[in-house]
Amino acid sequence: MIDGNGQVRLTDFGLASVGGAVDNVRAGTPAYMAPEQLAGREVTARSDIYALGLVLFELFTGKRVFDAATLADLMQLHESGTIASPSAVVRDLDPSIERAIQRCLDPDPAKRPPSAFAVSAALPGGDQLAAALAAGETPSPEMVAAAGERSAVQPAIGVALVGFSVVMLVVLTLLSDRYATIHRIPFPRSADSLKDRAQDLLDRFGYAGAPYDTAYGWEVNREYIDAVRRTPGGDPWIGLSSGRTRTALFWYRTSPATMIHSSDILRPSMDNPPLMVAGMRLVRLDPQGRLVELHAIPPQVEVNDATGAAEVDWASMFDAAGLPMSAFRAVQPRWTPRGFADARAAWEGPLPDLPGVTARIEAASYRGRPIMFSVLLPWTVPGRVAAPETTTLARAVSIVTAGIAALLLLLAALLAYRHLRRGAAIVAARFAPRSSCSSRSKPAGCCGRGTMRPSTPSTARCRSSRRTVCSSAARSGCSTWPSNRTCGGSGRSCSLAGRACCPAGFEIRWSAATCWSALRWGRSVRC
Question: What are phi and psi of 516, to 5 degrees?
C-alpha cells in the first residue's frame, strides 16, 4: 500500500488476538505455526517469535524450514526436532543472523527471545541502544530491555565459576589450619588472662596502683620466619610451637592520662600514641604469659629527696621471663632504654626450647625500679631506627603496583561513566514526558523540537533534541531545522525529490549529500 506521502507500506491482514484470550489456538497458517500451537497447547507471544524465525529462515535462505505436503507430515517434522541450520543452505551467512534464527526456532518457548524487538537487537546492526546513546538520544524502555535481555556469561559458565569459587574457599579454609602461621603457635591463655598477668607483673616490679587508661592487643611479625628462610635448609615451623620466637606477642600498656591516638586508627595500639609521657608503661608477653619486654617512662622532673634507691632484683624478672639467670653471663649493654636510666645491664645465654639459639637480655633501671627489660633474639630488628633504603627491585615493584592501581581506578571510572549514561537513559526513558506526533501537529509530521526515532517500534514518539526528524512518512530520517525545515541545514527541501538520489534501503539523514542505511547503523553511500 502507498501512504499519503508516497511511501510504500507492507501490510498483512492476518489473524490476531489478545494475549490469554485465544479460543482456537490452531487458527492460522500451519506452515508458520510454532510446535505448541500445532499441538493445541497454550500459545503466547513467543509462539509468534517462532513464526518470525520461520520467516527469517526463508528470507535469508530462500527455503522453508519444514517442507511438508500435508499437515500430518508437518507435525511429524516438528516432533522429530531436526531443524536444518541456515548456514547449511547459505554457507557465507553471518553467524549472528544464524544465532538469531536458531534462538527463534528453539522448541522450548522459554528459550526464545521475549519480543520481536529483541530479535531485531540480535541481528547485525541491531545494537540500537548504543546507536541511540551515540546520537545523544534517549532510548525507549523497550530498546533498553531488548539490549539487556542476554547475559554476557552463559548461565552454565556462571554457575560453574561460582561453584569453583565456593570450592576454593572451602579448600583454603581447610588448608589454613595446616599452613597458616597463626595455627602453628599454641595459645594456651586467653587475652583477659594475659592482661591480668601483665598487670600483676607491673605491681610486682614497683608500679602498683590502678592505671587511668589501659589498652591491649596482639602483635604478629615475620622476623623469625624470614630469618630462618634465609638460612639454607631452615624450617620455620619447628620453632613456632615453643612460643619463644617473638612471632606472636601480647601487649598491654597503661597511661596516667587518656591515651589519644591518631585519627587513622580506631583504638590505641602498641605504638600509637607514642610511649613518651611520664608514667606510661608497656608489657609484652608471649602466648604462655612469659615476660618478653617491659618499658616504663621515668618522671621528667626528679624529686630532690630521691636518693639511695635500692638495686633492682633482676632475678625476679628472669623468673617472670621463664629464663634461668644462672645460665646467663653478664655482657656490655648495647640497647638503650626509651627514657633516662641511672643503671644498665645486659646478659647472654641459651634460649630454652630452641637449641642453638642465644638470647640477649637488655635491662635498665631508674631509682631502683626497672624501666627496661627485653629478651632479644638473633633475628630481632630494632624498632626505633630509620627503615633501610629500598632496593631498585623494591622501587620497581612499587611503581608497577601504583601503575596497576591507577589503571584499575581509571577503568573503574570509565565503567562508572558508562553505567551512569545507561542508567540516566533508562530513567529518562521511563519518566520523560512523551507526546504523540502526527501529520496534523506540524508540517512534514514533526513534533516541534522533539526528535522521533524512526527505528523504534513506536514511530509516533518524540524526544527532546536540537533538531527534529521529519517522519510523517515514519522512516524518512530527514533531519530538519526549525528555521528553514530543510535537510541538515543544507538548503535542500525535505521532500521525495530530495531523497530520490538514494538507493533502496537508504535515506538522507544529516547530510544532504550522504545516504544512510535504514537497516545498519553507520553504513552510508554518497548521494
Answer: -105, 145
Which one-letter amino acid corresponds to residue 444? A
Please give the grid coordinates belonging to residue 50: 517462532
How many degrees, rounded to 5, is the angle at CA 41 between CA 85 and CA 66?
Answer: 25
Check whether 76 has a pLDDT greater than 50. Answer: yes
Q: Is 271 exposed, middle or buried, given 0-12, 13-18 or 19+ CB atoms closer than 10 A?
A: middle
pLDDT by residue (tens digit) across 208-224? 888 999 999 999 988 88
The DSSP result for 393-437, as a single string, is HHHHHHHHHHHHHHHHHHHHHHHHHHHHHHHHHHHHHHHS---B-
Compute CA 292 distance to the chain's CA centroid, rounded to the nearest angstrom.
44
CA distance 431 to 453: 18
Q: Quick count: other Cβ atoms within 10 Å of Cβ 249?
A: 20
Residue spans of beta strands (DSSP E) within 168-306: 213-220, 248-255, 281-285, 291-296
Which of 64, 87, 88 lies closest to 77 in space, CA to CA?
64
Contact 1, 8 (CB under 8 A): yes
Strands (E), 222-351: 248-255, 281-285, 291-296, 329-330, 343-350
Instruction: Report domain extents, the chain.
Output: 30-147, 185-300+309-376, 433-527
Q: Alpha helices, DSSP H only, in 148-275?
A: 155-179, 191-204, 223-229, 237-240
Return the residue matching grid coordinates 507435525. Answer: 75
Q: At what angle do helices 45-61 and 95-104 cross, to 10 degrees?
A: 140
Q: Which long-range contacts (CB under 8 A, 24 or more apart) does 356-359 make?
A: 357/239, 359/323
* DSSP letter, residue 461: B
Task: In whole angstroms, give the CA distance from residue 257 to residue 270.
Answer: 16
What is the distance between the alpha carbons of residues 382 and 376, in angstroms, rounded to a whole number? 10
N-term to C-term CA, the chain = 27
C-alpha cell at position 246: 617473638
Between 465 and 279, the higher pLDDT residue? 279
Q: Which residue has the higher pLDDT, 482 or 376?
A: 376
Q: Are 94 and 124 in contact (CB under 8 A)?
A: yes
121-136: per-residue pLDDT in tens? 778 766 666 656 655 6
Query: What count of residues does the chain have?
Result: 527
pLDDT at 458: 38
Residue 396: phi and psi, rounded to 5, are: -65, -40
Q: Please, what CATH class does the domain formed by 30-147 belong to?
A: mainly alpha
pLDDT band at residue 290, thresholds of 50, 70 and 90? very high
Instruction: Provide the CB-side half-sphere exposure for 362 (13 A, CA).
Output: 16
